Amino acid sequence: MTTLIAEERxxxxxxxxxxxxxxxxxxxxxxxxxxxxxxxxxxxxxAVILVVVxxxxxxxxxxxxxxxxxxxxxxxxxxxxxxxxxxQTKGTQTWSWKGLLIFVFAMALSVPFAIVRSSALEFFxxxxxxxxxxxxxxxYSIRGIGELEWIAKCMTMLCVFSAILLKAGLGQxxxxxLGARAFLLGMYDSNELALLIVTAAPFCLWVLRWSSVAWRVxxxxxxxxxxxxxxxxxxxxxxxxxxxxxxxxxxxRRPLLHRxxxxxxxxxxxxxxxxxxETLKGRVQTLFAIEQDYNVSAESGRLAVWRRGVDHFLSxxxxxxxxxxxENAEGRWGxxxxxxxxxxxxxAHNMYLQSAAEMGLVGLxxxxxxxxxxxxxxxxxxxxxxxxxxxxxxxxxxxxxCVAYLxxxxxxxxxxxxxxxxxAVCISSILxxxxxxQHTHANR
Length: 444
What we know:
With 444 residues, the protein is mainly α. It is built from 22 helices and two strands.
């Protein structure tokens, strides 16, 4: 901004003292970059991140876990969609948002061919009329970096609140062969909780880099919360996802890490490795001796589940066995092969296989279209100069979040988690803003 004003003054002196007016497009772009989110948006987006995505209300009480809290948020979304006169609809033109709509279409296509049509239809209708309007309302409400900054702050609060609830005793430990693993009651299991927090971690770094001093203090708590939850959950998928984020951060440190923060990165990693629980260390060590892991040898292990998942997909490659029907497909396979007593009706434990088996090629295509453009945002930041710092930083954070989801989702049935469409909202919004700022710099 200061450089641009100085250039204008030099032009004015050379041209007889008259200031050359700045193009209106530049003024409008700066207005979008500096947008100030309304109180309505702050409350609505906080409810989406903390309740719809984080499901924090489930951990507080068994009562709140069964209340239809998401439905009032959906009603609020309907009112916003009906009454708002300034919707930002360009976000629906991105490949990520088109991928989400293809994904929803795949759900609909799978219902008539579902193993249990009633449960598939119930899930699809809930997703279509309750969840999807929330994501549309969130996307339409984003006008610039101000709204995206608030979303990043909500992601940071999600990490902090999850750690507080876990530390306050609202979690539970599950004893396994390698030790105890924690999760929050009524929310996600240990692996899902780890994926959720690691996906939110890059947004904590963005807040730490670009927000006010008070919010930077909160962001420090968010980063510490990510480490605490990863340690308590002892998730190998979460560990691999955070390693992928760390590798990506090495290439994207400038828009996401202040120089002083980058200097502290190595000591923090050393401290984290020293403070890691024995359970986490033991589970990570199995990654280097994978042939001894039950996931390789047992019939209920993930390799066996994945092999059967390929068979489920090949039985109906276009439509799948029906949304949320993977476990029923496992049960049917067990009955057909004489594995009735003691056979586990397992989840897919892989979001790509989950999408392909439940919703066919169309569902898998939609999933990849959502996340791959997001993961490529990091390359856009590296290869583009002259970007607004906050915009480039948020693009880098979104890209790293998508990388975390792509890696962590390899070991989880994460295709239907609410974090996925929220990532689609972030990808679509920041992609448009990134291109608009880039276009402005090109026209200078």
